[in-house]
Design goal:
Blueprint: H1 2-103, H2 106-128, H3 132-148, H4 154-169, H5 175-189, H6 205-216, H7 221-226, H8 232-235, H9 239-254, H10 264-267, H11 271-293, H12 297-314, H13 320-336, H14 345-356
Helix pairs in contact: 2-3, 2-14, 3-4, 4-14, 5-11, 5-13, 11-12, 12-13
């Protein structure tokens, strides 16, 4: 009986153990199934999120491309707008200048016109060497100021009257006459005798024959008159011999000349150097002519002074042609002293003062 009870107890225990194991297996199955369900849900969520992220990335790339294109378009538009803005600013400045010029008073316009006209006339006078354009411009400006009849323009009117009198009384050199005198000087240079030139008789055989024939036709009293004291021996010679002796004596006397030379370099001048001395003097005169045409009076005076020094150094001052050349040089120098153009500083100063003051 005891063994049966023991077996029954063991059977009960084993049945309980089996039930517990079955319960534990069921619980684990339930837990595993729940975990599987959760993992499946997580995988689905992850797949869904990945798809959303991919779509978002694609959309972001599309938006980035469109944004870049928009930025480029905006940069192009901005450059175009800046260009138009600069054009508008330039047009605005031009418009402001135009408005300012239109809003300028009548007196200011008159001052500007008179100033430009006088400056242009002064330039014309400097270029042409004539004071007529400047005098005409001054008289026209005086007439316009008188017609304006403004009290504030009275200083300008006084300055115009003073400058008109100054221009009227100015002595300006006559350029055409100066050019004619310079051309005459250039022509005279070839005829100027050098300081070391020797006056010789005609050396050709025909000239010598003519001289002897002329002397042979003289009356017999001519040798007696030209005979020197102590020539009694020659009085007993035949006529043809006396004439031949007189001719030989005259030719021998013409071979030697005694004169005073103040410039040693003029006496030592060779024929080749004499050619260059004449050409150098011509160049000085031509340079003076060009300087006179270009209204450079200081250079003209310097060149004429150099030409005078060359003439006094290398040419014979007692010759008639040299005296004529010296007279022309002196006339040119004296006329060039008054060749300075008069200035209208008083009128220009009055114009500057009135332009700086505000118009009323």
């Amino acid at each position: 009986m005891e063994s049966a009870s023991v077996n029954a107890v063991q059977a009960v225990k084993s049945s309980r153990t089996t039930i517990i194991l079955i319960a534990l297996c069921a619980v684990s199955l339930l837990a595993s199934s729940s975990l599987w369900v959760k993992l499946s849900a997580i995988q689905e969520a992850l797949a869904r999120q990945s798809a959303d992220a991919t779509a978002a990335a694609l959309e972001g790339r599309t938006l980035a491309k469109s944004a870049q294109e928009t930025v480029r378009e905006m940069a192009t538009r901005q450059a175009l707008l800046e260009t138009r803005l600069q054009e508008v600013a330039l047009q605005r400045s031009q418009l402001e200048e135009l408005i300012q010029s239109l809003s300028r008073s009548r007196d200011d316009n008159l001052l500007v016109d008179v100033d430009s006209a006088l400056r242009l006339a002064q330039q014309q006078a400097n270029l042409t060497g004539s004071l007529e354009p400047l005098l005409a411009a001054l008289r026209s400006a005086e007439l316009r100021v008188q017609r304006a009849a403004q009290p504030r323009l009275s200083p300008l009117l006084r300055a115009l009257a003073k400058d008109i009198e100054r221009v009227k009384s100015a002595n300006v050199a006559d350029t055409p006459s100066l050019l004619i005198k310079m051309d005459e000087l250039v022509r005279l240079v070839d005829d100027l005798p050098l300081a070391n030139a020797v006056a010789t008789l005609a050396a050709s055989p025909k000239a010598a024959t003519t001289t002897l024939a002329t002397r042979s036709l003289k009356p017999s009293s001519a040798p007696a008159e030209s005979a020197t004291p102590g020539s009694g021996l020659m009085a007993r010679w035949p006529d043809w011999l006396r004439q031949l002796a007189s001719a030989v004596r005259d030719e021998a006397r013409s071979l030697v000349r005694v004169s005073r030379v103040d410039m040693p370099e003029a006496a030592l001048l060779s024929p080749e150097q004499s050619f260059f001395a004449r050409e150098n003097m011509k160049l000085k005169l031509l340079n003076a002519r060009l300087a006179l045409l270009s209204r450079q009076f200081d250079i003209t005076r310097n060149d004429l002074t150099s030409a005078s020094q060359l003439a006094a150094r290398y040419f014979d001052s007692n010759a008639r042609a040299m005296q004529q050349a010296n007279g022309l040089l002196a006339q040119l120098q004296s006329q060039l002293k008054t060749a300075t153009q008069p200035r209208i500083d008083d009128t220009l100063s009055a114009l500057a003062t009135l332009s700086a003051s505000p118009g009323k």
